[in-house]
Each structure stands twice: as C-alpha cells, then as structure tokens.
Amino acid sequence: MKKISNLFRHTTLVLLLVLAWGVRGVLAQGPNEEIKDEVSSAQLPPPMIELAGQIGGTVNDTWWVNNVSVMGNMAYVSADDGLHLIDISTPARPTQAGFYPTMGGVGEVVLIGNIAGVLNGDFVLFINVANPAALSEVGSYPLPFSGFPDYAQDIAVVGHTAYVVRFVTGLYLLDIANPAAPILIGSYNSPDRTFGVAAAGNRAYLAGGQSGLYIADISDPTMPTGVGSHPGLMAWSNDVAAEGNRVYLADGLFGFGGLSIIDAANPRRPKLIGSIDLGDTRHVTIQGSYAYLLVEGDLHIVDISHPDNPTEIGFYDNDVTWWIDDLDAQNNYVYVAAEDKGLLVLRLLRHKITGGVSTNGGYLSSHGTYLAFPAGAFTDMVALTYRHLWQDQDMGNLVGIGHTFELEAIYHITGQPAQLAPGQTFDILVQYTDAENGPAIEDTLALYYWNGSQWVKEASSMVDPAANTVTAQPNHWATLWAVLGETRRMFLPVILDK
Asked: What's the fold here for domain 6-43+349-485?
C-alpha cells in the first residue's frame, strides 16, 4: 500500500474532527457523477456544459452580436453597430475593452496579428486592435460591384492572403501584406451561392449551398481554378473548416443535415470519410479532436478522432433562434454569437462542487482533490466553487495529467469575488493515478497557476510519487490551476580526458 502524505493525513484528521464537532464550513457532496480513476486526459468523458457568462444583446438594451473570433484574452465580436473587443481574461465576467463603430453592422471577423479583418457589406475593413482603447481603421477594400446585392459572407486568412467569399460571385483573393493598401490578386466565380470558406495548402474550400463543397486550386493566386466538388451530407452546405487534406462540412436545411468529413487528398475526387446526422447545421469549428457545431441554434460537440465514425459527446441548448451561425472555441470555453442574446460564454467541465466557507474555515473534497481553509482564510462568509475543467489546455513545454481546475470564491453578502486574507494560506492536495500520469515525468509533477499570461509553478508545490499526490500551501489566490509535468529531459555527453 502506498503511504499517505502528511497533508492528506492532516486533512483527513481535520475532516473527522469537523464531522464530530459539527463545525460550519464543510461542503456538501457534488451533484455530478463520479469520473472513473482510469479516465485519462487522452480519453475524455463527455463534458458537462454550463453558461458561465454573457455580455451584450438587445435583450439587455445593448448590441446585437453577429460573429465572434477569440485570441488569447480577447474576443473580437462583430455586432450591428461595429466591432467590440471583449476582455475574456476572466471568461465568466466578460467586459468590454474597446469599440470601433461602423456604418451598418459588421459580419465575420478574422485576426491577422494586431489587425482585425472585418466584413462590412461590400467592404473588407482592416482595423488596428493593438490598443483596445484606441481602435483605428488602417485600410479597407471595396469588393467589385456585381450588379445586385452580393454581400461578403465569410473570410479566411493564410499568410498574407485573405480569402473572401460573396453570396453570388464567389471567391476573392486579396494581398494584405500591407493592410493599409490591400490588393485584389485573383477571383473564382463559383457555380453556386457561397456561404463559407476555408484555405489550407494550395486549396480553398467553399461551402456552396445546394451544391455542397467546391474545391479551388489556389497555387496560382492570380488564377484560382475549380478542381473538384462533393455534395456533402445533404447537398446544402452552410460552413466549412479544413485541416490539411481533411475537410469538415456543416450541412443543413429545413431541419435536416449534420457534419460531413471529406478526404480531399485527391481534390478532383474528394470522398466522404464519415458523417453524423444532427439537424440543420450552420457552423463548424475544429479544435483538436473535436468539432464544435451550431445546429438550429444549439451547441453540439462531436468527437472526430475516428473520422469514419464521428460521435456526438456534448450538447447545450442555447435557447436562441435556429439560424444562429457563429461560435469560437478556446480551451475549456465556447463563445457563441447569439444575436439578440449577445455573446454567450459556455464552460466545459467534468464536474463541480459548491458550498460555503465561513470565517472559521472550511473543507472541500471532490473526485480526488482536497481543499482545506483555516480559520481566518477569508474575512467573511464565501461561496466556494471547485470546477474540474474538461480538458487540459495549451501548456507550452509542459503536459497536463487531466487535473486542470478553477477555484472561485464569492462573498455571500456583496456577491463580489473574494481573495485570500493577507498572510493566510490554504491547502491543496490532488490525488492522481498512474494512468493519468501518462507521458509526464512523475517526479517533475507540480501545481501551477495561471497568472493571466503564463503558467507559473506554485512555490510550495511538492509531489509524492509513492502516494500519487501533489500538494501545496499557496499564500495567494488564483482562479485557474493545473497539475503539470515535464515530458523529456536533456542529457549532455560527458567527455573524459585520459
């Protein structure tokens, strides 16, 4: 039997004393199912999805949200009155950081470094977003007059080329090396109406309405050429995403449709690998092994790790109109452009637990994670929530082991976020399994916290490989925590002189 660390013995003893003496602050068991110990971060359970935050929307007498693109701590939101920059460093409390007004509403938005490319009717606007408090337009491009209403529908950027599609006249390629003076370098008049575009390698992929997928060869950007097509799941395609030779098509009309996964290695003969029926599917975003889709306004998450057998693993009823058609995903959050309901921020979890911690202290345990707060840790009664997030996010040179979590403390009286009282510490113990440890070097495991821009190792963190525990006594408060480890070590050769 593996030995138990001192912190775990201490926490267990205190919990027993609390049960015996009835001290306030012991938290109730969480409402969600136990996650089996054998589940590793590479074999994720289905996510629990909850509404974490919201901003904007005409229901709040503010702005109507059309599209969203997320990068780092900022969401770039196009609305009926212009471009809004939303600070999402605390996703549950999004706040406006900047605004650029436009004539008429703006549509799809894409990020190119410090420049946002925004569709505005027949124009593509390029807005400098380096300083959110002082946004400025650096350039624009008026798409050629086509003789009838033909607004831009979608935009993708690869390198210095922007790929813009219009409803009727198809694809336009813009050189945006100098966004102050974009140049039209080529176009392709697709055979049918066009709703979406993705670009990868030497190909552009177009969501062509009732004609499904169109593939254009863009190896010569001055002369894009149609080379292939595929009807998709039901011959009405609303959106498209691509990674390498694999194309993901959001199909749907009149309540029918779903996701089509197409192999375009031979663009002249693309073939269907797999599909899943979901309903009228309006949008697709790919993140890792998962497709995030909007189906009749609701979020569906599909596991695409086996493309011949895509499997739905998550669903959330957004309670919005069926034609909602844009979202973005980053780490454990999904951002939905919900029109009159504004920007919805959805959180993906494995489980959570909430309870009260008084000034006398309190304790929490949930699925192998133990938290202990001494008397005086908080200056008033708080509601404490532990959330085990669904997946490990980008950890740079480190690797997660499936223990990424958020801590939230809210004062009962004021409803404001609470901080640890000056000079106080609290205890964290995380129990892990050998299966969860995976590729991480076990004796390098430690507790890290996110400081807003990077992961920082908690100074008090210790690992006990014999007990499979990571413990720490932080003297500060942070929202986002993770158990991380190194995956490789470097050994320098030793040369001996004889």
From this structure: Chondroitinase Ac; Chain A, domain 3 (2.60.220)
